[in-house]
Design brief:
Elements lengths: L6 E4 L5 H10 L4 E4 L7 H5 L3 E2 L3 H7 L2 E4 L4 H8 L5 H4 L5 E4 L5 H14 L2 E4 L2 E2 L2 H6 L2 E6 L2 H6 L1 H4 L3 E8 L3 H29 L4 H10 L6 H12 L8 H18 L4 H18 L7 H6 L4
Parallel strand pairs: 1-2, 1-4, 2-3, 4-5, 5-6, 8-9
Antiparallel strand pairs: 7-8
């Protein structure tokens, strides 16, 4: 039986904090790093190691995981004299679980390949509640044998691992999923706005969706209280969906995929973000709708 690997985890935001906690619960020896050091305090209280630099963390662990906001954040923790790449060496594993562009993922994979580092492209599908429950879906890109070998680690944070193909297939699949999520969110936000304009209680729209087996959707149920109460605590911040929508449109242009509805969703996300709603939940796109023509 293989000894459990030592895991270094970088990024203790909304998702990463829950994911690192679940690795600890699964019995892994975990050490963490976060650029805002205050976020490591709760882990130190649990007896978890805290590294001063990504390089130090990467030198200690067998598997290094990053869960940060965007490509710039990955570069900030992985590049430079104290970056994670300085501590990684041949035979170690680097798993990027951040949502980044496929082109950026391809560059990470090539860099790792040149030095013998095992690279897995593993963004996740799910927001804060699923991260806390350990029921994320892991969208895994990489060599199939390595995905299988690291599956116990991945399943400590999620309920299912979907093998997408070689990197950057995980990143492409994540963008496909988030394209659909963006449409679903804008649809129920527009439905809420339209119902209110027509003098219909939007709760009746959600009741109808829930009562119809063909339209029943757990995601709609999760967003229902936010849209009805007009309060949008972030499970998945709007600014992150905006970032992903930009990646989607860029990839669509490269692949010559025609996705005109997504282009309009991107426009609405940009307007909502510019209105100051970027830090709120993606469903705050509703507030962008309300002010769209003002």
């Amino acid at each position: 039986m293989e000894t459990k690997k030592k895991i270094g985890f970088i990024g203790l935001g909304i998702m990463g904090q829950a994911m690192a906690s679940n690795l600890l619960k699964a019995g892994y020896e975990v050490c963490v790093y976060n650029r805002t050091r205050e976020k490591t305090a709760s882990f130190a209280e649990k007896g978890c190691g805290v590294s001063y630099t990504p390089k130090q963390l990467a030198g200690w662990c067998d598997v290094l995981i990053t869960m940060v906001s965007d490509p710039a954040a990955v570069d900030a923790v992985m590049e430079g004299p104290n970056g994670g790449f300085e501590g990684l060496c041949k035979g170690k594993t680097f798993i990027n679980m951040s949502t980044v562009s496929p082109e950026f993922t391809r560059q990470l994979a090539e860099k790792c390949s040149k030095t013998g580092i095992i690279f897995l492209d593993c963004p996740v599908s799910g927001s804060k509640p699923l991260a806390e429950a350990g029921t994320l879906v892991i969208l895994a890109g990489g060599e199939e044998a390595e995905i299988c070998r690291h599956e116990p680690i991945l399943l400590s944070m999620g309920r299912k691992v979907i093998h997408a193909g070689k990197a950057p297939a995980g990143s492409y699949l994540k963008l496909c999923v988030n394209l659909v999520m963006g449409h679903m969110t804008s649809a129920i936000a527009e439905g809420t706005e339209f119902a209110e304009a027509c003098g219909i209680n939007p709760a009746l729209m959600f009741d109808t969706l829930d009562a119809n087996p063909a339209l029943q959707c757990r995601y709609f149920s999760m967003k229902r209280p936010l849209l009805l109460d007009k309060k949008f605590p972030p499970a998945f911040p709007l600014k992150h969906m905006l970032k992903d929508a930009r990646f989607i449109m860029s990839a669509a242009e490269q692949k010559q995929a025609y996705i005109p509805v997504t282009e309009k969703v991107l426009e609405l996300l940009e307007k909502s973000n510019n209105m100051g709603y970027g830090g709120e939940d993606i469903s705050a796109i509703y507030k962008g709708l309300k002010e769209y023509e003002k």
